[in-house]
Amino acid sequence: MSQSAMEPAGLQMWRWLAFACLSWICLGQVAAAGPHYMVTIPAVLEAGAESRFCLSLLRPNETLQMTVTLMSEEENITLFQQTSDEGFRNCILFKVVSSFLT
Predict the structure, then answer these.
(1) Residue range of the domain that includes 30
(2) Count of structural domains within the chain
(3) What is the DSSP string of 32-69?
(4) Are 79 and 52 in contact (CB under 8 A)?
(5) Per mean pLDDT, which range of 31-35, 38-42, 85-89, 90-94 is the poorest?
(6) Could you tell me the CA-to-CA distances from 70 to 5, 35, 85 in Å, in that order?
(7) Contact 55, 82 (CB under 8 A)
(8) Where is the signal peptide (predicted)?
(9) 80 forms bridges with which residues in the sheet?
(10) Which of 93, 98, 53 is nearest to 74 (CA)?
(11) What is the pLDDT of residue 81?
């Protein structure tokens, strides 16, 4: 088994989040103008378990609408929807229903 397969899913998610944040900081230095957004989700979603996703909106230059939707063949569930002309960061807990994982 590889090292990453033996690590807990939470640790893998935090490593990915740290990488994404560092990339975000570098991107911000290169492309400072205009709005930027980032959404992070766990790589593995377990039926019946609570999961968390985090999102950020930085430096919007107009009013923007951000929508995060969990999609499956049977249904779509909107997990987050917000309209804003200001930057924000938010983490949302949600429960994964089994119909999304079949």
Answers:
(1) 3-101
(2) 1
(3) -SS-EEEEE--S---TT-EEEEEEEEE--SS-EEEEEE
(4) no
(5) 31-35
(6) 25, 24, 24
(7) no
(8) 1-32
(9) 68
(10) 98
(11) 92
Domain harbouring 34, CATH code: 2.60.40
The residue that leads in pLDDT, 48 or 30, is 48
Structure-token match 């429960």, residue found: 95
Q: For residue 65, what are its two tokens?
A: 């609408």
Cβ distance 29 to 50 under 8 Å?
no
pLDDT score of 39: 79
Measure the CA–CA gap between 58 and 76, rounded to whole angstroms. Answer: 27
C-alpha–C-alpha distance, residues 55 and 39, integer Å: 4
Integer angstrom CA distances of residue 11 from 6, 23, 46: 10, 18, 16
